[in-house]
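JOB MANIFEST
job_type = single_chain_structure
chain_count = 1
residues = 68
[input]
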Amino acid sequence: MGLPLCADPDKQKFPELARHARASHLLTRDKVRLKLARRVAESGRFALLAPDAFLRRTTRPEHGLPPG
């Protein structure tokens, strides 16, 4: 299954790189790209998240960091 295409072809390289690197997450503040998050997640490849959402998912109080 392929990745959803970005509206801006110049930005397609970032999800392609994340897929090729077998990344677990791709962080972005780009609202257009974040609209693709559900379709990317359905592909089972990586999570496409805003940085604050990533921190809420990964920050744990036991690590001494405040939750997002």
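[summary]
The chain has a mean pLDDT of 82.
Helices lie at 13-20, 31-34, 37-42, 51-58.
exit_status = 0
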